[in-house]
Write the structure tokens for this entry.
Amino acid sequence: MQLIPSFQVDHLRLKPGLYVSRKDYIGYECVTTFDIRMKRPYKEEVMDTGSIHALEHICATYLRNDQLWKDKIIYFGPMGCRTGFYLIVEGDIGTDTILPLVERTFDYAAEFEGEIPGATPKECGFCVDMDLTGAKRDAALYYNVLITATKTNFNYPQPRKKRQSK
Ligand SMILES: [Zn+2]
């Protein structure tokens, strides 16, 4: 089987940031998948399951209620490696266009108070695994990444050029 493109990103050189993971076409309609990379792989601790789970509930609820974007949100969910999330949006969208939405989503999560949406046994498959304190901390750290980001936080590391052999 072929290695899928997201495994071809050099995760050893990947910084926290916001990246276009892929663009897919369904007929003539484009959907853009964003890599919301919150933790630097192998340099920072990955998120705890309770934190990433709480963030999934809080951020998904926020995104699907955002007045500008709610009708274009297709999917938001955690990466299995627990270093970030994928966000899938309708349209051919760049990081500069989606950045304000992602910033306000994580700003909202960092300040979140009250009941986590959908956190009951009837609404969720394992609602006891929620850590709001951890979620708010991880959201605040990522928000700080976004507001201080430079272009290396928005573009995947380019493959290293091979050295010329003499
Ligand atoms: Zn859940």
In short: The pocket of zinc ion is lined by residues 53, 57, 124 (CB under 6 Å).
